[in-house]
Amino acid sequence: MIKKRRYSIGVLIGGVHTNFPKEIIKGVIFAAKELDVDVYFFLGTQTKGFFQDVIGVYSSNSYDYQFNTIHDYSLISGLDGLIISFGTLGKYLNDQNAVRFAKRFNSIPTVFLTEMVDVENCHSLISDNYQGICLVMKHLIEKHGCKKILYMDGPENNTDAAERKTAYLDMMEKYNLPVSPQMIARGDYSEFVDPEVEQLLNLNPHADAIVFANDDMAAAGYKVARKRGLMIGRDILFTGYDNSDTATGLIPPLTTVTQDGVTMGREAVYDMIKRFRGKMVASKRIPVSFVQRESCGCVSENISESSPADLSEEVQRLNHKIAYMKQESLNFQRKSWFIPLLARDLNDCIEDEAEFCFQIMNKMKELHANSAYLFLLDPVIVYDGVSDWTCPDTLRLASYYRHGRAISYQVNDRPLVTKENSISKMMDDGDRHKFMIFLLFSGERQYGLLACDIEQEDFTFFYVVSLQLGLSLRYLEISKIEAAHRHELSHDIEVIRDQNRVLDIMSNHDELTGLLNLRGFTESSEHLRMQTVTPRKAYIIYGDLDHLKEINDSWGHAEGDFALCSLAGILRDSLRSTDILARIGGDEFLALVMSDMDAFDEEFRYRVKQACTALNEQSEKPYFVEVSLGIVSFTLDQATDVHKMVAEADKKLYEAKKRRKPSIRKSKNNPQQ
To answer: Containing domain of residue 653, as a range?
Structure first.
């Protein structure tokens, strides 16, 4: 029986640190489990808000634009369909056009969330935003008599935000209430819009209420109100939108609109499966409902209608929630110690890239990921956020962890990821998974993707881990560059050493004969003297080629060179390789010989004379090659003055030269004369 293939659905979603995207993710995970579907979340996370909340300003060093590129990696993931939460992405994208964005991905069935688009192979799910804000406005005006109602708008070019703002303006017009531009402020759906709320209240000090386009921005309004000494629900009324966990946790609890992100995420998966099965699916709006709580000046409907037993259950539920949040905070603090340990362990194996990638998977195991995969770019991509972005066609699987085992590939053996041999194929191990996919980058440099099958509540921590991995991959890259430079430097040093050896030979040797020159003789004899611990008998031989000037003048310098080289060969053959022999200039030769041989002087002279005779008999040259020699014997030890011995040999050479033939020209009648 052939097993039915499990469908793979990708989810492009951003702003996942805020409540509504979290609810969508939760709904998708529920439905994926119910329908036995693999799901891949391509997470577009932004950090500017976090920096602002901590240090009060946006980071000037932010590389958040990198997150806008992760969506395109879904195109080489081999997915059957895509769910695109454009409302959570659009505010960060350079290209804000929803239709154009939808067309980039509609080669496969696509569900567009929070945005209505008319694109082939795509349908939309969107909240009834207009109706939600109308319910809020009607309550504030009719129930509480509010006349000056301010509005905290959502991101520009966001359909949810636009529809909610339109409802606000229409309701103000319906009730004949004036609206000026300073009564509306632009937000970004995050909890970090404190400055915008401050400005809104500064411009409108006598406002009755603020309608926030979502709950997270309302939470920022609570912080500002506390700073200004305003009691929410009495001095000023607040409402939100989403009915998130944030809303119930605020004091007083936030009046809001239920936008069921869980239902939207779940519906998107069910719609996708219907389309896979060939059914027609139409775009639709998800109904909303008004939730009355104390922030608008009312007593909560739930409280007014509840019995003491119900109130006790509510208190118990809140206590459990507080305890859970405290435990989560404690767990995150404990896990935070993992980050420096991760950096340390990766740094310890920075010289071995395969081990480096293996350790990453080991860490995923320690963090209790169900499975994990590390995909790396080759080469690294440099993207500045301004130039046109082109998604790579390929990745390499560097390492993975699944079924309790970590595997890492050597660099040249890494499997290639393509559209045909896709990410989802490489990650298919027969089990159902929900992968959170993080972009790995450092500054402008992209390194690849980390895909982890983890629980949704672990996302925040793994996001921090992914940032550290991006930094560690940068260190790895720098280490590889440095290693290449070291190798190149080592090669250059070896080349220099070879060149120095050649230069050393050239500086210590006679170019014509290949023997040592005067410098070479001096250094070699000095080295031999210093190495002689026990005194030994030695000889200095000072030789002079007879009548070199006559040869040069009569037959040319080439013949003089022949005579010099011939004599050099005779002297070399008459000595041992361990003896020091040099041509010290012009027609002069010098040798230092260690020998205990009796009558070495006579023996050496005999060898040289015989060799010269043999050369002259065989040579057809018109001249004789002969040498005058001065030889001095002495005892060599570390105290010996070798220069003095050379001077003594020079004196003896001078005497010997007096006995040489007056000419080295051969007689025509007798070439031996």
So the answer is: 518-657
